Amino acid sequence: MTATVLTQIVNGLSLASILILIALGLAVIFGLLGVINLAHADLFMAGMYAVVLAQGVTGNFWFGVLAAPLIVGAIGFVVELGVVRWLRARPLDTLLATLGVGIVIREGVKLLFGAGYRQVANPLPGSIAIGPVAYPIYRLLLIAVTASILAGLAAWLYRTAPGLRLRAMLQDRETAAAYGIDPERASLVAFVVGAALAGLAGALMSPLVTVGPDVGIIYLARAFMVVVVGGVGSLLGLVGGGVIIGGGDTLAGYFLNPTIANAAVLVLAVVILRFRPGGLFR
Amino acid sequence: MAQSSRQLRRIMRATFDRRALLRGAAAAGAVPLAGTFRARGAVAQNTDPIRVGAIIPFTGLETHNGLSMQYGLEIATGEINTAGGLAGRQVEVIMEDDGSDVGRGVRAAAKLVGQDAVEFLNGTLTSSVRTAVFEETRESQTLFLNPTYYEGGLCDPYYFSSGATPNQGIEPMTAFAMENLGKSFYFVASDYIWGTGSVAAAIPAVEAGGGSVVGEEYVPFGTSDFTAVINRIKEAAPDVVFPFVAGQDGITFLKQLSDFGVRENVEICADSIDELIVPALSNEVAAGIVNCSCYYMMLENDANQAFLETMRSTYGDDALIGSFGMNMYNNMKLVQAAADGLDEWTKDAITERLREATFDGPSGPLTTDPSNQHMVQNAYIATIQPDKSFKLEETIENVSPQAGCTVP
Description:
The complex is a heterodimer. Chain A is mainly alpha-helical.
C-alpha cells in the first residue's frame, strides 16, 4: 500500500514537472508579451525533430537536447521579426497568425522528414529504487531538469539586467521606452526565449511520447490550462498550475479512470477560474 | 449535429441527381430517367473516366497511414488503367483528407459523392469516420469499399470491406497468445467505437479459450501520460497486455510500458502494430511484440514482391505500406476483377459482381463472403525481432469474416 501511494506521489510529481516543462514557453510569451502563441505546440514538435535530426547526424540524443533550443529559438526569431511584431497591437490577429505559423511549421516538418512517426529511444533506460518503488531514471531526471530550468529562468528574470528590462516593459511599455529601454528588442528576446523553451521541452519529452509531425497539438490545451489556472505572468503560478493539473490528473486517473480524469481536471480548472479569475497564484 | 447531417444529405442527393441528369446519367442507376435515354439510343458508349473518391487521413491522429493508403490506391489505379480501365473506361482518382476527424470525413464524402459524382468510395480509417460515412452512403446508396480492419457491425448491399473483422485479427491473436504467451489478459483501449468494440470482441474470445481477463480500461484520445494505467497493470500482473490504443497514443503507451519495466514480466500482443508503426519504436521497445495482421511487407509471395518493387521504384526505397494501404490496393483490384468482361459500368452490375469477386494478391487470396460482403482472407501472426523485422509465426488460411451482421 505504501508503495502504491509513493508511486502515485512520484507519478504526480513527474507529470507536474512534464506539464510545467511543456507550458514554460507558452507562459513566458503569454506573460511577458501578452501574446497567446498558438504555434507553441508546433515549436514543441519542432524540438522533437531537432532531436531526430541530431540523433541521425551524431547518433547522440543529448546533442539534440542542445540543438533544439538553438534551432527552435531561431525559428522564434524569424517568427517574431516576420509576423508577431507587426500584430502586437491586435491580440486577436496574433492568435490567428500564430495558428497559421504553426501550420507552416507542421507542414514544413512533413516536407523535410515525411509524415511518418520517428523513433527516439530512451537515453537512460532503467530504474532507480526510491524506497520500495523502482522509478524510471529518465523521468526522475526530468523532474530535476525542470526545477533547474525554472530556477534559471527566475534568476534571469529577477537578477539580470535583460530580465529587469523585460519586467519594466511588462509593467508599462511607454514609460520603459522613455527610460531608454528598447521595447522591440525586449519583445524579441522574450519571444525567442519562449520559443527556445518550447523546443527544449519537445526535445526532453521526445523519449517519452510519440514523435510525429501532428503530435504537438495534444499538448497545447494542457499547457494552456496550466498557465491559466496558475495565473498568467508568474513563475510560481506556473508551478502551482502544473502541480494542481498534473496531480489532479494522476490521482483521478488512478482512482477513477483516465477518461473521467480528463473531464475532472477540466472541471477543476473551471471551478478555480470561477473563484480566482486571474489564476490561483496571482 | 443531426440537423446539419440531414442538410448535407439533402445537398448530396440534390447535387447528385442534377449532375447525373446533366451528364446523360450514364453513372446512376439511382436516376430513373437514365434508362429512358439509353433506350432511345440518344447516348453513345460512355468514354468519360470513372471517378473514384478516396477518403484518406493525411493529417490528424492517423497521419502516418496517409501516404501508405495513397500508394496502394495509386499503384492499383495505374495497373487498372494500363490494362484498359474498368469496363473500357479509364479510372480517375479524387483524394480527400479527412483529418482523422468525423466532421471532415462526412464533408469529404458529401463533396466526393455530390460535387465530384464519383462512382464509388474507397477509404476511411478511423472507425468514427467510417461509421459516419457509412450512414451517408447507405442513405444515398453509394458503393463504398472499406480498407481498414475494424470492430465490424456494418452491413449494406453497397458496402464491402477488405478490412478484417475481429475474428480475422483479434481472435487468432488471442488464441496464439494463450498457447504461447500466457492465459491472463489486460486490455487497454482508446475510448471510442474501435477500442470498445475490439475489447468487446476480445473478451469472449479469451474466455472461450480458457483464459482470463484481469483488467480492461479505456483512455481518451490524446493521452500522453499512461502512468496511472501502467500502475494498475503492474498491480493486476497479467501475462499479456493487448492494446487497442489508436494512432500516436498507442506508440506513447508502448514506449512508457517499456520505461516502467512492465515488459520484463508481461508480453504484448496486438492487431495494430505493423511495419508502418515500428519506425516510431526503438529496437528495445519493438522487440518481442506479437502481432496479427492480414498483410505484412515481409510476406513472401510473387505478387507482393512485384508490388513492393513497383512501390519502391515509384515512391522511393524507403516507402512503406501497411495493411490499410494494401487494402486500398485490394479494393481497387476487387473492383477490377468485378468489372472484368463487363460491357457497361453501372453501379448495380458492379455491385452484383463484387459479391462474387475474388483477387489473389500481395496479401494472399481474397474472396467476398456474400452474406456480409466482407472478405474471406488469411490472418498472419508475426513476432517483431530485435532488429525490428517481422518474423512470420503462423498463417491461418482463408478465415471467413464474422461481421456481426448480414446484408439485408
